[in-house]
Specification:
2 domains, RDD, transmembrane helix, membrane, Pra-immunoreactive, transmembrane
Length: about 230
């Protein structure tokens, strides 16, 4: 794979959200600022406009980031039962990947990792016969190769071979870009380290968390790295 991929999250990253969708809701970014700075009503003692952000002398703290009051309508504003709903981080991103496609992609990736791990295990004498199963040494090969494979592929494009075939990808929840090196490494570590001793049970546990997690269908690896898996079609 080419190493000339754009930096994750950079303007050239084809997977990042458009600037207007960064953290925005279904209607995009707020209106442009007015002639008096960020809030065209900043000098209004009653804090109008975008709800008087920081408007001096406003005892009711009308808006996002205002000085606060019993009617503060910003997200989480104190005393406001009718405040703005939390912003959806998935706004501007493709739909979440189908769970069935994620399972198939994982099976493909496990087979890809098993082949070199099994050959190394057999060549090193870890098993007397290639078909006799995985030894402790084979488990180590499986976990290490799996980690390196997942980390390298994910940080480049958000896609392993299995994900490419299933037309899905891993994306950062906050901006939709391909995970950077650190996030990809953390995700790969959670995925593959326990596979050293209990790969079948561990992948079943991860699959269950994906099936039942709400609202983002995040496996434990996704929660650790703050990622989601989305469709590319």
């Amino acid at each position: 794979m080419s190493t000339d991929q754009p930096a994750p999250g950079s303007p050239e990253d084809p997977y990042a959200k458009p600037p207007g969708d960064q953290g925005g809701g279904p209607y995009g970014a707020p209106p442009p600022s007015g002639p008096y700075g960020n809030d065209p009503y900043a000098d209004n003692p009653y804090g109008g406009g975008q709800s008087g952000q920081g408007g001096p002398g406003n005892p009711y703290g009308g808006g996002q980031g205002g000085p606060g009051g019993p009617y503060d309508n910003g997200p989480g504003g104190p005393g406001n039962p009718y405040g703005e709903p939390p912003r959806d981080p998935l706004a501007g991103m493709p739909p979440l990947a189908d769970s069935g496609k994620r399972v198939l992609a994982r099976i493909i990736d496990v087979i890809i990792v098993l082949i070199p791990a099994g050959l190394l295990d057999w060549a090193s004498g870890g098993t007397d016969n290639f078909s006799s199963g995985k030894s402790a040494l084979g488990g180590a090969f499986f976990a290490v190769i799996g980690f390196l494979y997942e980390w390298f592929m994910t940080q480049n494009s958000g896609q392993t071979v299995g994900k490419k075939l299933m037309k899905i990808r891993t994306a950062m929840l906050d901006n939709g870009s391909a995970p950077g090196s650190s996030a990809a490494a953390l995700r790969a570590l959670v995925l593959w380290l326990p596979a050293f001793c209990c790969s079948c049970i561990w992948f079943v546990i991860l699959g269950i968390t994906v099936l039942f997690d709400k609202p983002y269908r995040q496996g434990l690896q996704d929660k650790a790295a703050k990622t989601v898996v989305v469709s590319t079609t």
